[in-house]
Amino acid sequence: MNIKPAEHIKSITEYYFSVKLAEVARMNAEGKNVVSLAVGAPDSMPSQETIDTLCLSAQRPDVHAYQPYTGIPELRKAYAGWYKRFYNVDLSVDEVLPLIGSKEGILHISMTFLNVGDGVLVPNPGYPTYKSVSNLLRANVIEYDLLENNGWYPDFDALEKMDLSGIKLMWVNYPNMPTGAKATNELFERLVAFGKKHEIIICHDNPYSFILNNKPMSILSVPGAKDICIELNSLSKSHNMSGWRMGMLSSNEQFVKWVLKAKSNIDSGQFKPMQLATVAALSNSDEWHAEMNKIYAERRVWAEKIMNLLNCRFDENQVGLFVWGKLPDEASGSEEFINDILYNSNVFITPGFIFGSNGERFIRISLGSSVDLLKEAYTRIENKLKTVY
Q1: Distance of alpha carbon 140 from alpha carbon 79, whole angstroms
Q2: Coil, strand or helix: which one is 347?
Q3: What end-to-end distance do the CA atoms of the chain give, in Å?
Q4: Intervals of CATH 3.90.1150.10 along the chain
C-alpha cells in the first residue's frame, strides 16, 4: 500500500514534550525516577468551591446532554464579570466565546482568518503551537525577533521595515512564555496601533497574568483594542485546571461570530458540570490567588538556586510559571545541556531551542513541581557536579 499523510503534516513535527515525555516515561520504567521540572502544569487542586460544584452538578439528570456551542449563558456572563473584576475590561456576553482550552483557540482563530499563503507573524522565541498551526494551514510563517537586549519585547522599528502587505495575524503573549517578560500599557498600546495601521489582527495569548504577577493586564483594556485584537485566556495555569481544558477568547462581536462558525463545525460543546464549576472558579477569592502565589514564590527560590548551581543567568524580575535562564558561555547548546542533566542526574529541564532559535542559549524551569521535588533536583545536580569537579 502507498498511503501517505497530507502534505501539510510533513511541515510539522510531533510536539517536543510528546516525544520527550515518552522518553522520560521509559527512564522511569527502568527505575530512574526522573524529577521533571519541564512541563508548565500546576500540581495543585482547583478551589474547593470548584470541585464541589462539579461533583454536585454532575449528579443532576439534566446536565449530561449536548451543550450550546457558545457555552452556557452563565459561563459567558462569568467570563465577562471576571474580565471586569481583574482587568477592568467591559465585555458583553456576545464578545466572549468559551473554548476547550485556549490552545484550541489558536487553531480556530487561524482557521477563521487565514487563507493559504497568508502571512503570520510569530514570535521567536515563542509557543511552538503558533508556528505549527500556521504551517498546518499552509500559511506563510514569518518570525519576528524577541531579544534579551530589548527586554524580550517586539522591535517595532524592525517590524516597520518588513514587507507587511501579506500579513493577516500577529501572535503575541505577555506575560511572556518562555521569557517571563511582563505586560505593559505601552506595549499593548503600540501593538494595537501597529495592528490598526497595517490591518493585522493582533492575537494576544494571556494565560499567565495571575502567576507571580502583581498586576494582571489585558490588551483589551486599550481603547479601541477590540476592533483589531483577539485575546485568549485560560484557567489552566491560573486556577489549577490544566486537565479540564477550560479557556475562552474575547474580541468584537463580529470576530467572535466568525470564530464560532469554524468552532461549531469541530466540537459539540463542553460538559455542563465543568462549565458550572468554571463559573465557581472564576469567583475564587483574592486570598485564594494570593495563597497560590505564595506557593509559587517559595518554589521560585529553589528554581533560582538550580539556575545558579548550573551557572545560568536569569532576570529576577520575570513573572509567570517559569524561570528562564541563560546558559553559561562554555555550554554548547540547550539540548545537549539539558540532556546531560537528564541522563546524569535524572532531572528533566526544558531546553530553550524548542521555542525558536533565539531560545537556543536558554533553559526553562517550571514552578509546577513541589519545593521537595525542586530540592531533590538541586541535590541530584549538585552531587553530580561534585563527582565531575
Answers
A1: 33
A2: strand
A3: 56
A4: 7-45+286-388
Give the C-alpha separation, 52 to 277, whole Å.
8
pLDDT in tens, 361-372: 999 999 999 999
Q: Work out the number of other CB atoms within 10 angstroms of the CB of residue 114.
A: 21
pLDDT tens for 199-216 read 999 999 999 999 999 899
The matching CATH number, chosen from 2.40.50.140, 3.40.640.10, 2.170.120.12, 2.140.10.10, for 48-281 is: 3.40.640.10
pLDDT tens digits for range 15-61: 888 888 899 999 999 999 999 999 888 999 999 999 999 999 999 99
Segments of 137-199 assigned E as strands: 140-145, 167-172
Q: Do 360 and 332 touch, CB atoms closer than 8 A? A: no
Residue 229's pLDDT band, with cuts at 50, 70 and 90, is: very high
Residue 246 vs residues 35, 72, 202, 273: alpha-carbon distances, Å:
27, 13, 22, 12
CA gap 180, 177 in Å, rounded = 6
Mean pLDDT for the stretch of residues 125-146: 96
In sequence order, which residues have a C-beta less than 8 Å from that of residue 120 and are 6 or more positions away?
A: 110, 114, 130, 134, 139, 140, 141, 142, 167, 168, 169, 170, 171
Positive or negative torsion for Cα 82, 86, 89, 95? negative
Between 4 and 295, residue with greater pLDDT: 295
Name the grid cell of 318: 520575570
Instruction: Report the CATH number of the 7-45+286-388 domain.
Output: 3.90.1150.10
Are 327 and 365 spatial neighbours (Cβ–Cβ below 8 Å)? no
Contact 93, 77 (CB under 8 A): yes
Please list the residues that pair with 140 across neighbouring strands.
Answer: 119
Query: Residue 252 to residues 96, 147, 191, 276: CA-CA distances in angstroms?
Result: 9, 32, 17, 25
Type and span of the H or E element at 231: strand 229-234
The percent of residues in the chain predicted with pLDDT above 70, rounded, is: 99
